[in-house]
Write a structure and sequence with these properties.
This is DUF5694 domain-containing protein. By secondary structure, the chain is mainly α. The chain is built from ten helices and three strands. The protein has a domain of 76 residues. The protein has a three-stranded parallel β-sheet with strand order 2-1-3, with helices on one face.
């Protein structure tokens, strides 16, 4: 979410409440966030203030969706499960290298990737349905996998960054499984679309949890 999308308008706030109501149908027992544990204490302090009515929600889905839903369900806390670390090479450097040395590959990768946009005429529910559409999520996953092709046999430019990306998603996966304390646990993960398919695949392939897509609830 972004502030310039006008999420503080009465219309958007009504749409956010509708979105929260859709997610509430999942009946999550815990809500996990794309946030590093190091920020967990600050997050918890903000959530406590929100529960007390002394914190105005920031224009971010952690707060607009996560805090609202957690409070509605009377959760005591939310759970940061992300990791950042330091990559050997930044994505911007990888893309710049590809533009100079492998422009046709990069063009081919990008032509099949189109992120949904939150336009003034589009409601939030439709926007989130687009972000969780399986076709779009597969396009994103395919793009990231093909980053590995950027470089040469002796210079793995794309993999220098991609190894960090996969490690980050693996840690998200591992931390999510650590939150599952019982067979009855229902964990909602609020995370950017770029992570969804890869983390879902890790979870499914692990065989330790059942994965339910958000779209099942956003379209209900």
């Amino acid at each position: 979410m972004a502030e310039e999308s006008g999420l503080d308008t009465e219309r958007r706030q009504t749409e956010i409440k509708e979105l929260v109501a859709k997610l509430a149908q999942f009946r999550p027992t815990k809500i996990a966030l794309e946030m590093v544990p190091e920020d967990g204490e600050v997050c918890q302090e903000k959530y406590s203030r929100y529960q007390q009515g002394t914190y105005e929600l920031e224009m971010n889905e952690y707060y607009q969706l996560g805090f609202r839903l957690a409070d509605q369900l009377e959760h005591a806390q939310l759970y940061p499960v992300d990791w950042m670390g330091v990559a050997d090479r930044g994505y911007g450097e990888v893309e710049s290298w590809a533009r100079e040395h492998q422009p046709e590959l990069l063009e081919d990768m990008l032509k099949n990737l189109s992120f949904p946009a939150l336009k003034p005429e589009k409601d939030l529910l439709s926007y989130y349905q687009e972000l969780n559409d399986p076709v779009f999520l597969q396009q994103v996953d395919t793009f990231y996998l093909n980053v590995a092709r950027i470089g040469t046999i002796s210079n793995n430019v794309g993999i220098d960054w991609l190894s960090w990306w996969y490690k980050r998603n693996l840690i998200q996966f591992a931390n999510l499984t650590r939150l599952a304390d019982s067979p009855d646990e229902r964990i909602l993960f609020i995370v950017g679309a770029s992570h969804v398919r890869i983390v879902e695949n890790f979870l499914r392939e692990s065989g330790c949890v059942e994965v339910v897509g958000a779209l099942d609830y956003l379209k209900s």
